[in-house]
Amino acid sequence: MDSYPAELDLVVGLDQGDELVRLCASGELSFAAFSAQYGSLYWSAALDGHESDEIGVALLRKYSDRIALHRELAETVLARVCSAADAERDEYRKLGRFGPDEAVARLRVLAAALLKEASRPGIDGSGRLAPNA
Question: Which domain holds residue 12?
Answer without folding.
Answer: 7-117
